[in-house]
Amino acid sequence: MKFFIMTLFPEMVMDTLSTSITGRAMDRGDLIVEAVNIRDYSTDKHKSVDDYPYGGGAGMVMQAQPVYDCYESIVKRIEGSHKCIYLTPQGRVFKQSIASELSTEENLILLCGHYEGIDERVLEEIVDDYISIGDYVLTGGELPAIVLVDAVARLLPGVLHNEESAVGESFSDGLLEYPQYSRPEIWRDKTVPPILLSGDHAKVDAWRHEQSVIRTRERRPDLLGNDDLG
Ligand code: 4F9
């Protein structure tokens, strides 16, 4: 899968995604990320990309022209299918099932806004999907884009080495993950649950599933369709 990220801060996106697992996946070619600087498409002599909002009000609005020309330059280079996503608090709220749905796309173009927003007319022309990563306002769409790429990338073939690690985890079955333990067997007088030392894999699996259900009921009852701890 290839991600194109339309942004005014390409180094913010590339520096972050070049770190750790996503960075190694990029080095291997299992994940391709290209940040495209919207400012490079400004036709203004001062390379400006924003202007005052019609109707007045605080802040600046990203202009349609550089965003549209940036988008067009990307689409021209894409061979297969693509989908353009604008990261905005006004979108559908991102969750694991959306990451899973997006992981089947050939090319994703992510649009990161800044200032008070982007001229509505270019959004109408190019955006296929509006996605929020939660009900809060950030200074721009870059962090949400990074979150989306990370969540989708780890579902792609080859990105995680352990084939099981993207399967038996939180949310893949709608439950939170069970508690984990590692050495030493006793730490500050706290022991490891004895069943994990038993070597009985069936019993370990049953215990872990039970812990996932208990933990989900306690911490995220909404995931079980409950609003309270009933
Ligand atoms: C985008 C916040 C997606 C949450 C973009 C300011 C944003 C955001 N989810 N906030 N620009």
Walk me through what this model shows.
There is one protein chain. With about 230 residues, the chain is of the alpha/beta class. It folds into 2 domains: about 1-155, Alpha/beta knot (3-Layer(aba) Sandwich), CATH 3.40.1280.10; about 170-230, Orthogonal Bundle (Trp Operon Repressor, Chain A), CATH 1.10.1270. The protein is built from 7 helices and 9 strands. The strands form 3 sheets. It has a 5-stranded parallel beta sheet, with helices on both faces. Helix 4 (about 95-100) links the parallel strand 5 (about 85-95) and strand 6. Helix 1 (about 10-15) packs parallel to helix 6 (about 140-155). The chain is elongated.
Helix percentage range: 25-40%
State the major sheet.
5 strands, parallel
Q: Give me the CATH fold name of the largest domain.
A: Alpha/beta knot
CATH architecture of the largest domain: 3-Layer(aba) Sandwich
Radius of gyration based on Cα positions: 22 Å
Characteristics:
Alpha/beta knot, single chain, Trp Operon Repressor, Chain A, alpha/beta, 2 domains, 5-stranded parallel sheet, binds 4-(1H-imidazol-5-yl)pyridine, 230 residues
Architecture blueprint of SSEs:
Elements: E1 2-7, H1 10-17, H2 20-28, E2 32-37, E3 50-51, E4 61-62, H3 64-77, E5 83-93, H4 96-102, E6 107-111, H5 120-126, E7 129-132, H6 142-153, E8 186-187, E9 190-191, H7 201-219
Parallel strand pairs: 1-2, 1-6, 5-6, 5-7
Antiparallel strand pairs: 3-4, 8-9
Helix pairs in contact: 1-6, 3-5
This protein binds 4-(1H-imidazol-5-yl)pyridine (4F9).
